[in-house]
Design a protein that fits this description.
Oligomer: single chain
Shape: globular
Number of helices: 12
Structural class: alpha/beta
Amino acid sequence: MVVEDGAHITDVLIESGRIERVGRIPASVDIETFDVRGKIIIPGGVDVHTHMDTPFMGAVTSDDHASASRAAAVGGTTTYVDYAFQRPGERLPEVLARWAGRAGGRSAVDFSFHLAVTSPYPDLVADLALVVADGVTSFKVFMAYKGLAMLDDGQLFTILTEASRLGATLCVHAENGHVIDVLAERLIRAGKTGPLGHLLSRPPETEVEAVRRGIMLANMADAPLYFVHLSTAGAVAAVAEAQSAGRPISGETCTHYLLLDEGLYHGPGFEAAKYVVSPPLRGREHREELWRGLREGTLAVVSSDHCPFCMAGQKTLGVHDFRRIPNGAPGIEHRVPLLYGHGVRSGRLSLERFVDVVSTGPARRFGLYPTKGVIRPGADADLVVIDPQAASVVLAQTMTQDCDYTPFERWHVPGRIDAVYLRGELVARRGRFVGRPDAGRFLPRRSA
């Protein structure tokens, strides 16, 4: 069993969905027992960056809360926090109600929401307070996607200031959208319309500049800031510098940025559209710094950024113009096993640090700890059993995610998730969902 102070050989007693006791349980106690000797027990994964049933760039993500939550369970994630997007002119309480209606009674694991503010309005500040009171204590803004989601620096600064006042977390998608649009237009005019243009229009500097600008705005607002899906060495360095100066700046990266290479954009034909995510995949020097940032604590979280668009009928919207390829890829099902198999087993992360970045850290950062993300008395009995002696292979045809491809097709993964428990109930067994499709609960979260 892996907990905050290390790995231990011990018993875990579960009662009424909660962990009652961690320690040796006498054999005389009359209880149902499960023998997991030789296995690794970790707290259920917490994925704080997902996009389910989400309209974006002319398409709707192929997974809804029903299918994606089952995939989460199979992959060892028992809690997710989804981004709820505002429509133009929609008030934030209306956004929350609409998204809760999509997930309520349809999620197989526990869930919560961040609210993505894309269309500020006069009463926004008052409504921020209303949704925080309802347990939604994090928001998101975009520094890219002009005309779709992008805010200007003044709007970002206002929301940053007010979120901080309420004890809420502001999550930021940091890319310089203005520069990206200019570069993309130049590529199209030069006849470079294929998926490689996505990489070329988003050089590392477009992320690094936005991250540094975001940090300066946070300094002026005297507010904390959380950067989503960081992909570059320069962004990690900027966050580390801010932390060294005592600023409350934190960030995450994602499974695909740790494991996949920008060379995939040079694939034949339109196949590279599978890897069109934002920011784009990067080269080895960036991946190594992301791993270093995780080991040293600069980056606190590994999320999936699960944003699945099928190749057929969705990614193909951009077959003649890379700017129209819906940005995103599936990932919630494979986040935990890939990070164990290619992080822990490769020696890049310790077992304890792995648990921290996939479970404890995100739970703590977003107001779910200590109910989630830890194995200790009083916590929910969300447990994942990993067999270190087994292995698995990632295949689109056998995965639970509702998408026609996976960016990790045919990857061999050392270790296998044997069983997953949500509040003490078995929900997944060796790659198969066996739980109740409506077992998930909405989790109101605490503010900082």
